[in-house]
Specification:
Elements: H1 3-24, H2 31-45, H3 52-79, H4 84-120, H5 125-162
Length: 164
């Protein structure tokens, strides 16, 4: 690697690490940021280290990670006895919580949103609490899976660039 390639590689890794942090701190775009760094590196590098096939696999992993994150929260609410209203409340609560309280607001928002919407839907307090707990468990599970996918993408990227 020449000096310019090293600088571009380091910048790509830094952007990817910010993306990985974005999985934990959802103000940042997370997995899409990792994907963007791969694409920009590939363009600058002329697709020498990162092939179009690998970029395609990373794109599929990006979509899968985002889908899994949403499905995990949805599944958590359903598994704990929540309804469609609870799912809507959890997602709405996540959005409101993110903008009003960051990561803590996101987690609390999902819980509170599921709880309140289940109460509105006629469930008793215990059933609504279970749905809220399900949204929390689903959110955490989705985050763990997204983190594993993001870390794997970064690891494969480093391997491809350094050991091609």
């Amino acid at each position: 690697m020449v000096f310019g390639e090293i600088i571009i590689f380091i910048l790509a890794i830094l952007v990817m690490l910010v993306g990985l942090a974005g999985i934990i701190i959802p103000i940042l775009p997370g997995i899409p940021l990792i994907m963007a760094a791969v694409l920009i590196y590939g363009l600058i590098d002329g697709w020498q280290a990162i092939s179009w096939n690998l970029a395609g696999i990373f794109a599929i992993l990006t979509v899968a990670a985002l889908t899994i994150d949403w499905l995990a929260t949805t599944y958590g609410v359903k598994k704990m006895g929540g309804s469609t209203l609870g799912i809507i409340g959890a997602i709405g609560g996540m959005v409101v919580g993110l903008f009003s309280g960051g990561i803590i607001g996101l987690i609390v928002g999902a819980f509170v949103g599921a709880f309140v919407f289940e109460l509105i839907g006629g469930k008793n307090k215990d059933q609504a609490l279970r749905a809220g707990l399900g949204s929390f468990i689903g959110f955490i599970a989705g985050g763990v899976i997204k983190f594993a996918i993001g870390a794997s993408m970064i690891g494969v990227f480093i391997w491809q660039v350094l050991f091609r």
